[in-house]
Amino acid sequence: MIEQTTLAKWAEFNRLKWKCDVDLLRFQPPKCDDYYSECLLFSRYGKFYFPPQNPYHPVIFHATPSAKPFRTNKQWHEVAELMIEHLVKLRGAVTITLPPDITDIRPFTWRGFQVDVRYTYILNLPYSVSLASKAIRNKIKKANARSYSSKRTENMKHVYECLLETERRQGFSHQITAADLELAQSILGEDSFRCYVCYSESGEPVSANVTLLLNPGQAIGWVAGTKTDHLSNGVVQQLQLFEFEDLASQGIKHFDFSGANIASVAESKADWGGDLTPYYVVRKPGFKDILRSGRDWLQFRRGFFRI
């Protein structure tokens, strides 16, 4: 069971960072104490809001531990219906990015929600490097031969150096500052906000990963960055392998790469040998969706009568 305090801390970070309102909800049928769903939603200026750098909306379903599959299915439909009733009452556009473990989205489609499918890679831990591609294994050997070393860190300045250089190289922004990293670390704590850095032989931070543990047993890759001069030396791969080993030592069972929807990014994640896993984005239909559906229906009818 997820620790509600962990979600509450993540909510507090988002509230302070993005200047938004947060609502930690519990959807539970009347007189049912043993199954329910937790959900963290955000709003801004009175309208639904999804802060940047949130991989998913935290939606956690707790079924009766001893329930048979048909009963678990029924329980999910009951709590999903309560969630949907809440969503349809919210102002403005409402889009929920469900985490990969929410696989049954039929309650949403039955209520007319629009659905998009996206993908991520999920690795089981402990991890064997034999599952990785030869290219990854060779890069790890290269980093080891050049005396790079990886470890956990609480030095957010070292982490930020690496994030910043990736932003400059690729022309985008994480919208995360060094102060934001320190804020997240202070609120979530080192167990839920885990930072890893690869260092050169001289002690320079050259690559960084930041991982979230919002749900016990599962880690989510949050942000990462690498300095250009060291990018081809296998530092990314050495650091990632070290992280897998550290997470496994803490009893973490799964690592979520948090998205595989951009071709160049997806290829590098696929080389680790994880399972390609779908996740769903559900959207409350708005006026534009109704107009679009009407247009599609008219086009279909016109085409039908031409046959």
Written account of the structure:
Helix content is 39%, strand content 26%. It is α+β, with helices and mostly antiparallel strands and 307 residues long. The protein folds into two domains: 4-118 and 279-287, no CATH class; 126-252, Aminopeptidase (3-Layer(aba) Sandwich), CATH 3.40.630.30. The strands form two sheets. An eight-stranded mixed beta sheet has the order 5-12-6-11-10-9-8-7, sandwiched between helices. Strands 1, 2, 3 and 4 form a four-stranded antiparallel beta sheet that branches. A hairpin with an 8-residue loop joins strand 1 and strand 2. The longest helix has 20 residues, at 69-88. The radius of gyration is 22 Å and the shape is globular. The N and C termini lie far apart (57 Å). The model has no long low-confidence stretch (mean pLDDT 92). InterPro entries: Acyl_CoA_acyltransferase. GO terms for molecular function: transferase activity. Keywords: Transferase. This is GNAT family N-acetyltransferase.
